[in-house]
């Protein structure tokens, strides 16, 4: 399998503060690869390093087999980027934004015409082609930014928190489009701190915190490896919750904020006990990526 | 070290020039109105008003003297303000460059495109001034059309210097220093309103380092239909400031944008 992105010992310091501390990456072609981590984990910085938009403090990067930053131009010509904050050009309309951006890639006007039409249809903005950017909603701007990232028909699409701050309808629409892109054979590299997004989209992901890689693998495999299959979340009076879970026997107990998590292989006995306690509300569910994430990155009070 | 290499001009810079041209086209009417209105005010107000008392200056009607000075100084202002306020807007609040830097373009291409655009804008607004001056009878020869390429060079010169300020600016207020400490004194001292030869001798030598002096020295004989002197020197000073400004601005902007 082809490796699209390869990084070895990637290091980035801002003055004396290291934000990326020696990470290795191997991102195979045609997959959706996620970088997960809390705010400040070094996700965005890592993306900037990979595209030659930020000088490295150490380590080696190859994208499409080409060295970064030396081949930055050639690599970016084959890459689409969806930045964390929209930076559409407010001086132009929706269609003009795509046209101007295509110009930066040197795409001839004739090729652009058809591509702009297709992309606007792809992100469901065909009827807004002549709208000014200021008149678009947040979701429309995000969709246009995604279309813009595709204007050069990239092999690699890099998305930095593609759905942060969007309503559920738009998020689902964008997830659908990203799956379409993956189906079309593009390699996707995305950062997120939405576990649901990572679980739905990513074939493989890395969990990072404080500039280091904590864990890597397929979402389901990570859940199997790090979390017991069943979870009970309990909210309510603290003393009562602790008591009821403490008496539940083997199993792992964690407190995050005002919620108590109980991880176990078999939750039936505890569920029965909790049902008889009107002072508590609880949720019994299968383990998911968020449990893994909290286990690996959480600074919660462990019991 | 790629950062130590001299930036080389690439066609990619034209994409940035084209972007700005298209934005300008959208606001063409009001900006053309301003392009004509401002010089008309200067030339009518100062040229006719003062001209009545002054009559001739340096063997030419005062209106011609002033019009050639205004051509040079307004190119300075046009390029400086575009390179500072407009470029800053695109660089920081509007994040236009952040978007462009995700494409094959690099910082040196963006700044080269901006300088080309600033210079183009100088030619556009300078053409309006030249037309107004000609209508008022201040232009005496077709030779004056050579002013247009000179305006382009003046535009490159002052946009290069302005871009240094932009790359350093923490905010728009910062530009006031440059305007007050550099541009305004240069406007007063560079022979726009009166000949440099009427300054005290020591000051005369000092103002020779100001690029606007050389811009005026090129434009004035072209407008008045007089022979040019020290052409190579004047061109070299303008080109030198522009090139130095570009190189320094690229260095500073890289440090600011590629973090």
In short:
Chain A is of the alpha/beta class and 303 residues long.
Flag low-confidence runs of chain B.
Answer: 1-5
The largest sheet of chain A, given as strand count, sense and whether it forms a barrel, is:
6 strands, mixed
Q: Helix/strand-derived class of chain A?
A: alpha/beta
Largest β-sheet summary of chain B: 2 strands, antiparallel
What does this structure look like?
The complex is a heterodimer of chains A (303) and B (259). Chain A is an alpha/beta fold and 303 residues long. In chain A, 36% of the residues lie in helices and 30% in strands. Chain A has 11 helices and 15 strands. In chain A, the strands form 3 sheets. Chain A has a 6-stranded mixed β-sheet, sandwiched between helices. In chain A, strands 14-11-13-12-15 form a 5-stranded antiparallel β-sheet, with helices on one face. Chain A has a 4-stranded antiparallel β-sheet with strand order 2-1-4-5. In chain A, β7, α6 and β8 form a beta-alpha-beta unit. The longest helix of chain A is centred in the middle third of the chain and has 16 residues. The radius of gyration of chain A is 22 Å and the shape is globular. Chain B has 259 residues and is mostly helical. In chain B, strands 1-2 form a two-stranded antiparallel ribbon. The longest helix of chain B has 30 residues. The N terminus of chain B is likely disordered.
